[in-house]
Amino acid sequence: MATRIVLLGTAGGPTPKRTRSAPANAVLVDESLYVVDCGSGVARQITLAGLDIRALRAMFVTHHHSDHNVDAGALIQLAWAAGFDKGVDVLGPPPLRNMMSGFRRFADVDIRTRIEDEGRPDIDALVRIHEIAKPGLVYRDARVMVHAALVEHPPLVPAFAFRFDTPDRSVVFSGDTTPCKALIDLASGADVLVHEVLYEGGVAEILGRLKNATRLREHLSASHTRLEDVGTVATRAGVRTLVLNHLIPSDGIDDEVWRNGAAQGFAGEIIVGSDLMEI
């Protein structure tokens, strides 16, 4: 029962990028598919990765920024259209239930038509929504055990990181966060830490073109982990491998810049994430 980790999308931020897709990750255990975050185009990224979208068993949303949740409803609808019929658990912070209900209303014409015209199963009977507001064990089945930690990504509260423990591996997805003890504790001793990262030296040109540059700079600084700090987080957690993900900026920075920056605080294996990379 080998566990596969696939980075479906490694960009950071809500706008479409030239070289990277929106945030999304896959954990595959015994041919069952678990997805962490559902940025734009996640269903296509799953297909491009050679994964079976019909194997979807659970989805986890770290927080409610659009680059992390915009395709949560679409992923279920498209998996269902592809023949998915075994049920899926959807977990994330409030107001997850309202968000998914809103998408269901949006998709109602298509869903009713396909049930009546194509004989598809009742999609509502397949989807189980679980709002989570506190840390701890949030999901368990025969293949995985998933714990959540409350991380610091102001102004959104709650925001979560998730740890997957499988029979052969442990992997933590940081979500969006500043360095915080809760994440370090969650990741303690994990095989792999997939962590967001901000290279402040690379965003100056981008910010210079924006009318909201001052406010956006303040948000990035207060809500994300700087490149020079991410290695220290990994070291304090005692992880074996650090994977840099949710890269800000997402275009135009050489891998060596990312790797060398993280290496300032971490002596273990450092991987600069790219779309469809398998860890």
Task: Give a quick precis of the structure.
Helix content is 30%, strand content 30%.
Describe the structure.
With 279 residues, the chain is of the alpha/beta class. It has a single domain, classed as Ribonuclease Z/Hydroxyacylglutathione hydrolase-like (Metallo-beta-lactamase, Chain A, 4-Layer Sandwich). Helices cover 30% and strands 30% of the residues. It is built from ten helices and 14 strands. The protein has helices at residues 42-48, 66-69, 72-81, 96-106, 108-118, 181-186, 204-208, 213-223, 227-237, 255-263, and strands spanning 3-9, 24-29, 32-38, 56-60, 88-92, 127-131, 136-140, 145-153, 156-165, 170-173, 192-198, 241-248, 269-272, 277-278. The strands form two sheets. A seven-stranded mixed β-sheet has the order 6-5-4-3-2-1-14. Helix 9 crosses helix 10. The longest helix has 11 residues, at 96-106. The radius of gyration is 18 Å and the shape is globular. The two termini are 15 Å apart. 44% of the residues are buried. The model has no long low-confidence stretch (mean pLDDT 95).
Main features:
alpha/beta, Metallo-beta-lactamase, Chain A, 279 residues
Rg calc: 18 Å
Q: How many strands?
A: 14
What percentage of amino acids are in beta strands? 25-35%
Count of DSSP H/I helices: 10
Going by CATH, what is the homologous superfamily?
Ribonuclease Z/Hydroxyacylglutathione hydrolase-like
Main structural class? alpha/beta
Amino-to-carboxy terminus distance: 15 Å
SSE string, helices as H and strands as E? EEEHEHHEHHEEEEEHEHHHEHEE
Low-confidence stretches: none
Query: Which CATH top level class fits?
Result: Alpha Beta
Total number of domains: 1
Q: Report the mean per-residue pLDDT as an integer.
A: 95
